Amino acid sequence: MMIPMLLAMTGLFLLFVGMLGVALYAENRKRR
Question: Cα separation of 26 and 7, whole Å?
């Protein structure tokens, strides 16, 4: 089935977005 692959891809995407958000948040806090 394709469900495990879809879940893995979604998990990686969420992880990437989370890391990007944290990096942007840290950058904004450092600037102010």
Answer: 28
